[in-house]
Amino acid sequence: MGMMDYWLVTTGPDNQPGINGAIMTRESQKITVNTIEVTSVNEFAKKITEAGGKTVTPKTAISGVGYFCYCVDTEGNAFGIMESNPKAG
Q1: What is the pTM (predicted TM-score) of this model?
Q2: Is 1 contained in some domain?
Q3: Which of 10, 35, 48, 76 is 20 to 30 Å from the Cα of 54, by its Cα?
């Protein structure tokens, strides 16, 4: 997989809850994928699989941002989990 257009979006100050995310080009799939901030990608990936969901990408470092992974729930809905860690990468 090569480079892709991907822009982080921040909706408010880091010290307040908010819905941050990203914008990327739409390829073949026309879906919205929500990403949830978690304290540990490893810990929550385990909880997801124990509850019947699946991880569909490996834990991936995003340099200077944190760790990320895509998952699907028991009904096939895709979502992401994101662990903030500025030392990632």
Answers
A1: 0.69
A2: no
A3: 10
Residue 17 token pair: 């809850």
Contact assessment for residue 47 and residue 36, using Cβ atoms and an 8 Å cutoff: no
The answer to whether residue 12 scores a pLDDT higher than 90 is: no
- Here the CATH number for the domain that contains residue 27 is 3.10.180.10
Coil vs helix vs strand at 42 = helix
Give me the half-sphere count of Cα atoms (radius 13 Å) on the Cβ side of residue 6: 5
Residue 89, in any domain of the structure: no
Domain count, the chain: 1
Q: Over the stretch 19-65, which tens digit does the pLDDT of each residue have?
A: 777 777 766 556 678 888 999 999 999 999 999 999 999 999 999 99
